[in-house]
Amino acid sequence: MIFRADASVQIGTGHVMRCLTLAEDLRRQGHQCVFICRDHVGHLADLVTKKAFDLHLLRSPEQSEMLAKDEPAPPHSHWLGVPWQTDAKQTLEALSGRNADWLIVDHYALDAKWERQLAEAVGQIMVIDDLADREHYCAVLLDQNVLDGDARQRYEAKVNKECDLLLGPHYALLRPEYELLTKALPERDGNISRVLVFVGGSDPYHLTECYLEALQSKSFKHLFVDVVIGRNHPSPEVVKQLVMSRSNTQLHCGLPSLSAMMVRADLMLGAGGATNWERMCVGLNGVVASVASNQDEINRVLEAQNLIQFLGDAETLSIGEVNEAIKFALECPEYIRSQSNAMRAIVDGCGTQHISQALKDIRDRAAP
Fold it and tell me: Minimal CA–CA distance to 292: which of 60, 3, 40, 10?
């Protein structure tokens, strides 16, 4: 199993992190997993190797050839750091001598052109995506961030006809402890005394600081607060000072999992992305702002279904808006309790196992 995914200060850490979750499950089943990542600033290579996965780090050439001006490119093509042809060539070189059953690709900058270049070097290709903004050539496409009925039609127009679509939080890539926790946790009562603040591995708009400044209000001084920041946070010292200035507040860095923090929290101030599904699996209510444009659509869908309080873009968010959202949560315990139960009904925590089984079934089906 080969994984092609990148992390960086610009990209964030979510793509690599969800691939690590899947890789750990596949390894438990006896598969060897290898990661191919580019050496962007904030690439997470140390974390990949710490988890005992083989890693091939792609070096960016000092001067890359330019793409043809008339060639269409995915909207996030600049995230790759090199032309897609260069990346395909380097990835093929990294694959040399490896007999890979699956190449699993999680990258907004890669599309069908790149995938066709790699197709003959591997058994099958799986794409992880949640944008539906470009064509793909693959055996499987996974989008865990789907709750509307139109998603299948959107993707069917962008993939080859043989592609299997795995859509929705039934396939949410969660660590194994979430399945155990969701089965063991009692129903939440809707009362809030402890708040968790986490916005992702990177925080380009300093949303963590915005949340902490809102929590400085005298109306919230009784709340216990846990603050978690990721490896690529741009201003950890500022966050540390804000934490120290507030009583009953603790700072945590580089946690391997948020599950323990989520279990003891009663409300989470966060962002979109995979953390939505982790939080929903354990019934933890959330106040959410988007830290990337690709989070907007799913956050709006979750808001429309009364599953989150969505505050819009982090870049334009005000402290007053955060204050109002927290006050609403504190004053409406019955609504919070009902919302918590609705979330747990959507995400069962078994998504990673569902994906692993789907890969096995598809591979068996394709075998001569």
Answer: 10
